[in-house]
Amino acid sequence: MNSKNIQNPSLLNQDLFKALFAFTFILIVAYFVSAFIMPESGNHILITAAAFGAYMALNIGANDVANNVGPAVGSQAVSLFGAIIIAAVFESAGALIAGGDVVSTIKKGIIDPATITDTDTFIWLMMAALLAAAIWLNIATALNAPVSTTHSIVGGVLGAGIAAGGFGVANWPVFGKIAASWVISPIFGGVIAASFLYLIKRTITYKADKIVAAKRVVPLLIALMVWAFSTYLIMKGLKHIWKFDILTAGGIGLAIAICMFFITTPLLKKTANKLENSKASVNTLFTLPLIFSAALLSFAHGANDVANAIGPLAAINDAVIHSGISAKASIPLWVMLVGALGISIGLALYGPKLIRTVGSEITELDKMRAFCVAMSAAITVIIASQLGLPVSSTHIAVGAIFGVGFLREYLKNSNAKRINAIREHHNNAAPEKVEQLLKHYQEASIEAKAKILSELKATKSTSLLTKKERKSLNKAYKKDLVKRSHLYKIATAWIVTVPLSGLLAAFLFFTIRGFMLP
Prior knowledge:
Order of helices and strands: HHHHEHHHHHHHEHHHHHHH
Number of strands: 2
Structural class: mainly alpha
Radius of gyration: 26 Å
Helix content: over 70%
Shape: elongated
Largest sheet: 2 strands, antiparallel
Distance between the termini: 56 Å
Number of helices: 18
Number of domains: 1
Strand content: under 5%
Oligomer: single chain
């Protein structure tokens, strides 16, 4: 009782400080626009839109950025504070350096801007979409559910667009592709991440001499990672500066990867020679690649997804200044700064909660597993881009984490069942002999284990256990390494993101229009 009374005021003070800091940032943005951007007219529409944009940026930082750095934090490759600094710096750099100077006024082409001919209606539509997406992201963060900010703004634009112009304004084929990405993104991410983890297990951790295997395989894995991330960064993170096709981007990335292979191989071998022959030691070889991957993912995210915060704001700014609607809108520096600073502040204030969820609460991540998640994020985006499939970086990253978790669960439970089968087969033998057999099995190579199990199946079991008893034993050995509660909560949040943000945007559109009409 006393401990609760002592702790609760502290927690309340922390929450109050965070809320006041966030609110102060929003007020500063609104004041800046009123004092320096449009001081002569005092346009209240642009001031309000800027406040909405700042609020959206805060929520993107709180929710979406966790996917880039969460695995690195969960695997203890970098501290939480270090991850926040890395993400804030590289998100801002990506937004300011490679964020582009124009943005589509209608995100993802979800509605046709030509169908909205009235400038005021268009502005109200974008304001409603922006605020709805921000509110939904805020709710999702409070529920500890990482969701797609792209899907949030798409839902907002769709809902407000339908409210403004009816169902005919929506581009339903585009929406169908986005809906398909709810399934495509996590499956792609999970399969690719699980495949890499299984490859690492077969080529390194299942080997008797893990250090020798690591010296041979890890340089190749890092080179592959450099190739994937170089190609990813050239195609996605730098697309507003230079445009490259997949062959050119892949060729440049391959050249960088080959150079890095020859640079890192002797360094890795020198480091590996000092390590013990254990999985924990091999894990340390993935620390630096994970830190670099977190930085590069953050840079690419800032370059691409900052448009989710400032795209609608840029569109409103363009419509207010030119008193018209265009398919593309220029992005003033002040708008880009609102997005970059808002994402960084939102990450620092509220990001740790989602970083912990993504990094450690879904399933336990070590550095090798986190490496597989990072690889999956880059490779999935590259493949999906070439196939013309819309994917969500949030869904990919979280799907990859679930993928490695379920693979671990499957392998561990399969191994437990095999050990149980060995125990059952030698049920009448002396306990010392059974333990010796189990020790021999655990230390055996993959090939030797397969031979042991084959011989076991070839001989008739002498077990006296009943079928019910065997089932009970199998159940006792089964372990869940993925938290089902997180799986159900996150999947539900993904499914309801577009419809909920859409309904909220429609409600807000009618509310805003009601206030603005004479």
